[in-house]
Design a protein that fits this description.
Chain lengths: 270, 270, 270, 270
């Protein structure tokens, strides 16, 4: 059945004939393979243009920063899935990617929207401090969390966040969004009553928006980066499996508190 | 419950304390972010070692080669999924990755296993021609398809495959597996009765095995590469949606041939 | 690392020892298998209680109603995924489920939230008409669509919706939420300027909330129902494959409108 | 592009016009909703025929038997995914389904193939004992595990398996495949050197093949059943979250044994 309006029927990403594959207007075999790196290709696919050196450097830095942070929930989900279904590497990767959500890795996108909103307010004439105060106030009034700040482990400051801002300065691309990210961090104690350090999910949109990375694809950075890490974990899972060790230890941490007939004796598994 | 043996309880990929994140023994913020590119980081995550220039160049070339080839089934599945569930970019990416299976993109891994088997046979003393003849014969006897050869569109030769082999030669890394890939292509007419050109899924393991990329992670290359492309398609889908156009056109191509009561009049949607 | 508060460490769904599996306090082998049907078991798992005859009848009716509606986008995504990755039936099912999102099947949950909000307003003393007017007005002011009404194919009324409301009356369970669903339909012409008939995604929460089905699990009904249908489609896909027919026809409907070098001749695949 | 042969372009599951939805030739609103239960509908979708009472009873029994068994890996993956991505219930369900693989729940399908192979051998004239001995011997020679027997917790016999066989006898449908399942269990000590009791994944295909359930959809039974259970766990996860408790406890069970610079002090998170 026909769902929605269907008048737009085009795509501009690639086409091909039997000899040639065109990607964003470039001959894939003749101009791209062997000539550009994978992160440049990702930028080209997304935006239609090859990146400048600064764009490439900042994009690489964010992908490296967010790829790996140990046995986080999505890695565990992925390794357990491979242990149960070793026939499908793609299924285990997919299970891990599904955990890149609003609470964990998707906060990069949410922080990008926050910075963008402050930038738009500030562009209307108010200074950045006033715009920040206004937007954070709106978030608080609506009961929304402030994305991009605070970390369960790196309470004194996320070392990845500081480094990303530094790379942006080195690349000469630090701009308005990085300034906003700093401003939010500086004002948070007075606006919400306690300090919260910028985390990696806040630093990523700050430096990427400053080099023109599209906001609507912000979540793509943690997703792509984590895919690399998931593949590494799944290689290790094939070589030194821990998927079922993880699930056993996790299950042991949880009690059953539902109804129990008198005749039932809890066992090792209860 | 305890499933399987659980005596191995370690991982060597990363650890952290409140100040520092170690990835493969390197300080992530101090040594990696801003110093290495994303594809180098992927190699480091997988193997525990930073890549040589040849390893990096060949890996980049394969990722660029396989990332994008138009509105293939997995891209369509991904775009339809985003159209139906725009709240979850990660779900749409996952739906696309799930189509990296044994028939489509997973054939890179299958071709890698084929070349590896021929290499092992040849290492036993037989020449490459004899080993190829033996292994292809075994595949045929078992009714297994020959992975890595032939393409529905690029019947005269896949331009990406030729270019990948060329990049490997340029990088000085072309070796035993590329030789095997050529040998299989040369012998196929006599072994299976018709010529089939090496395709991109055959060239990828040929050049990657020659630089020491781990066979058990071979499927990771098309999965990671396609993730980049899926994110680009999903950005376009947000800006210029075609997900429901695709599903409407596809449904129109299929007839209903099940039972139909006399009273039912087929409609536009039949 | 420790994410969030972790003081709640219990689950009440099931436990077991080496002899007995308890599900919601019942001996699975002794009391449930062979004694209750699958939809009763689903209700027990969700709520901790076996359903009344009316609860069971209404739940069955909603699951039957929403299971299947032809080659919808999620079915296509699933069949294409199986064609590409036949080794993983679970991957193809997962790809289909990922399309149960806010635009397509998830609107049952959104409609449930709408009815619930109207019910809460009405419980505050206003009549249902006034509460409906208020809540629909708020939705309109916020630019939110009205979930549960209108259908691209069944413009004169969704036959499943009418039948579900009838089953609820037959079961003696039709109540406040069904009344609200009718009221919204009656008032829509004056509130939004055009009539829109209640659809199946509106009728499902109307009848389920009236029998005490939990709102937070509303999306579970289309997800469970579609899983049944996806399995049937995937059996047919194994027997009479159309996955690649769908993707070919869909790709043909889309033009490439990106950059094209003068030397490139569009081919069959353009 | 055109992949594979595309001459079959039909589906027999459903069609519709603006008034009527036909499912397997039945008017969905007029004949099915409110008249049949969900498990009957599943059988109809799969086979094109409404089930007999015995078919329905056995199908229900298998779905009830396999739906829930505590905090198994796929449930954990699903709950962790919802904790990280609460905006997508469908994503959390999908993550759980992806763990229905060859090692865990998919063994129902593998056991079905084993029984089917023995049945075909026996149909060729050999008795069931001889056919079993032959087929199990082939499995052993190929290094393949024997699916459907043994359980990490229920070592003395899986209570669900015994009950399923009993339900089949009560329904009058116990036949050749149940006999084979018993025969394998009886002969295993002499064929593989130790006793292994029939488990639920062996009993499911035994009783389902005896009522004519299609072998190629066998994995659909655990997938559909677990979907019901996953939805219940995800409702509980919304009400009493344990997703991050699970991941924290699991991570604590694993040591880091990779390279560590002298300057790095392992922290709480190491």
């Amino acid at each position: 059945m026909k769902i929605g309006r269907q008048d737009q029927r085009s795509s501009a990403i690639s086409t091909s004939n039997s000899d040639t594959i065109l990607v964003r207007g470039h001959d894939l075999a003749g101009e791209l393979i062997g000539h550009i790196g994978f992160s440049e290709h990702f930028w080209l696919l997304l935006t239609g243009e090859l990146p400048s050196p600064a764009q490439r450097r900042v994009l690489d830095a964010t992908l490296v920063a967010i790829a790996e942070h140990g046995l986080v929930p999505s890695v565990q989900a992925s390794r357990m899935t491979l242990a149960a279904a070793p026939e499908s590497l793609q299924g285990a990767v997919a299970a891990g990617i599904l955990g890149c959500g609003s609470v964990i890795l998707g906060s990069a996108e949410a922080a990008g929207r926050l910075f963008n909103e402050i930038a738009m307010q500030a562009a209307g004439g108010a200074g950045i401090d006033a715009a920040t105060t206004k937007v954070i106030g709106d978030y608080r009034a609506a009961g929304r969390p402030i994305p991009g700040y605070g970390h369960p482990l790196h309470k004194q400051g996320d070392p990845r966040a500081q480094r990303l801002l530094e790379v942006a300065r080195e690349a000469g691309s630090s701009g308005r969004h990085a300034e906003i990210a700093h401003t939010v961090e500086r004002l948070l104690p007075q606006l919400i009553g306690r300090p919260l350090a910028l985390n990696v999910s806040g630093a990523i949109p700050a430096v990427l928006l400053d080099v023109g990375y599209p906001l609507a694809a912000m979540k793509g950075v943690p997703i792509l980066a984590r895919t690399a890490s998931l593949i590494a974990h799944l290689l290790e899972e094939q070589q030194r499996p821990i998927g079922f060790v993880l699930s056993h230890a996790a299950a042991e941490a949880i009690d059953y508190d539902g109804a129990t007939p008198a005749s039932f004796k809890a066992g090792d598994d209860a």
